[in-house]
């Protein structure tokens, strides 16, 4: 398995991407999201008569280099190309020019799960259970490829037109067989072993799942403070309190996932995901129905057309002048 994966990844040049495009092939419209080094814009292929909307992730080369993210961007692209799962965003292609690299993704119209969570304040048990089963099923798949996702949070979970989840943003994904030591992720969702730089592996995703279940049911994360250093302190101490509305089985699962000692964390054993899926909070869940998208979603977007952007915020157009990277930095993207 390890050898196969190695071969697959090393043999997979990003140049193999499905089709080759250039920016002039597209009409760009609204920005639907922004990130640390670029934006995500709705785009349509000029030659496509059906005018199918895509999400074009446009990343500035100079910013990628400045933030030392060249390898992360390349990994994101490679990992997305090897993934094939009902709850993972599909990549349609990639290309670059002198200033930017571009990832062409399917457009997901329902917005971030974060928006739905904030509008409802918190989810009732069955709604949380629906979304968590889709995420657990996806983590099982990602981990089976020896990949840690490392950025689980409500902003990276999009809702598709049928109401099912699509996980996006594989910028921090990493192939991990042993431990890795990079500090990455969002403060509230960081596992204690990442903060303490003790080396971490796929178990950090099970920790983040515990944070997510808590936040879905409570409406706020278990470890919170205005100051990120205070958040880190609370995470390392591992002390949190449940609000009264969370039911006992959910509390038990959250406690087992939020084990500060990663070796005692549910999901950390050799049977990882299967142990999580067996927990009593999931009793009665038919995991085949989950995988086949046959469980009716609690909410579906009401779309006027395929390219409806009502569930995304408005962002101002990009007006900053963007520089070309130096010749040396430009070479870093040769194999993209
Ligand atoms: N395929 C898509 N369809 C619709 N909207 C999308 C899509 N992909 C991303 N978005 C929107 O753009 C936002 C930013 O995307 P993404 O997280 O992939 O960018 P990023 O540059 O990696 O961000 P970050 O700096 O947070 O890592 C998402 O939170 C979402 O709102």
From TrEMBL:
Residue stretches of biased makeup (Acidic residues): 304-336
Protein name: Uncharacterized protein
Keywords, sorted A to Z: ATP-binding, Kinase, Nucleotide-binding, Serine/threonine-protein kinase, Transferase
AGC-kinase C-terminal domain: residues covered: 283-336
GO process annotations (BP): anatomical structure morphogenesis
Annotated positions binding ATP: 57
Source organism of the structure: Euplotes crassus
Family the entry assigns: Belongs to the protein kinase superfamily.
Domain of life: Eukaryota
Transferase as UniProt keyword: yes
Lineage: Eukaryota, Sar, Alveolata, Ciliophora, Intramacronucleata
Record-level Gene Ontology MF annotations: ATP binding; cAMP-dependent protein kinase activity
């Amino acid at each position: 398995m390890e050898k196969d994966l190695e071969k697959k990844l090393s043999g997979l040049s990003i140049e193999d991407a499905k089709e080759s495009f250039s920016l002039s092939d597209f009409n760009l419209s609204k920005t639907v999201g922004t990130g640390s080094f670029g934006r995500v814009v709705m785009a349509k292929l000029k030659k496509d008569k059906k005018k199918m909307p895509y999400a074009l992730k446009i990343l500035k080369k100079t910013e990628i280099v400045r933030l030392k993210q060249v390898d992360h961007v390349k990994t994101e692209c490679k990992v997305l190309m090897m993934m094939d799962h009902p709850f993972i965003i599909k990549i349609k292609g990639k290309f670059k020019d002198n200033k930017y690299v571009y990832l062409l993704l399917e457009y997901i119209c329902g917005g971030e799960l974060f928006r739905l969570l904030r509008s409802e304040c918190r989810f009732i048990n069955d709604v949380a259970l629906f979304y968590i089963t889709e995420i657990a099923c996806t983590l099982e798949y990602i981990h089976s490829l020896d990949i840690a996702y490392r950025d689980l949070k409500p902003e990276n979970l999009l809702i598709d037109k049928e109401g099912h989840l699509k996980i996006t943003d594989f910028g921090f994904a990493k192939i991990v067989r042993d431990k890795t030591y990079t500090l990455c992720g969002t403060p509230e969702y960081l596992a204690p072993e990442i903060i303490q730089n003790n080396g971490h592996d796929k178990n950090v995703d099970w920790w983040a799942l515990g944070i997510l279940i808590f936040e879905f049911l409570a409406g706020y994360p278990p470890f919170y403070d205005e100051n990120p250093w205070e958040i880190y302190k609370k995470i390392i101490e591992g002390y949190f309190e449940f609000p009264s509305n969370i039911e006992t089985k959910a509390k038990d699962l959250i406690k087992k996932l939020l084990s500060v000692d990663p070796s005692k964390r549910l999901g950390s054993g050799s049977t990882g995901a299967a142990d999580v899926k067996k927990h009593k909070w999931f009793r009665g869940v038919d995991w085949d129905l989950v995988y086949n998208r046959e469980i009716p979603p609690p909410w579906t977007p009401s779309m006027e057309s395929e390219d409806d952007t009502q569930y995304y915020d408005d962002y101002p157009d990009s007006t900053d002048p963007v520089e070309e990277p130096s010749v040396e930095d430009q070479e870093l993207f040769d194999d993209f």
